[in-house]
Specification:
The protein is mainly alpha-helical. Helix content is about 45%, strand content about 5%. The chain has one domain. The chain has helices spanning about 35-45, 50-65, 70-75; strands at about 5, 10. A hairpin with a 2-residue loop joins strand 1 and strand 2 (about 10). The longest helix is centred in the last third of the chain and has 14 residues, at about 50-65. It starts with 5 loop residues before the first strand and ends with a helix.
């Protein structure tokens, strides 16, 4: 598990990600706006979490709850 003492900017809240040690990892390359990359880096530095760990956790969380924001995403399209 990967823990961060401050997940989502809330003191005491932990960010957890179960990592399968026998799971093969693949490289993901994507382009994101510079301002988002900067915010990501600042968040990770402030919360002492690796960017790779944060992105993995965020993707796993989003994929675990795919319909949570479905209506909001459709309205943006």
């Amino acid at each position: 598990m990967i823990d961060s003492p401050l997940a989502r900017g809330q003191p005491g809240r932990k960010m957890r990600l179960v990592v399968q040690h026998d799971e093969e990892l693949v490289q993901l390359a994507t382009r994101i706006p510079r301002r988002i990359a900067r915010r990501l880096k600042e968040f990770c530095v402030r919360n002492d979490v690796r960017m790779q760990s944060f992105v993995r956790s965020a993707l796993a969380e989003k994929l675990a709850h795919p319909r949570r924001n479905a209506r909001a995403q459709r309205s943006r399209a």
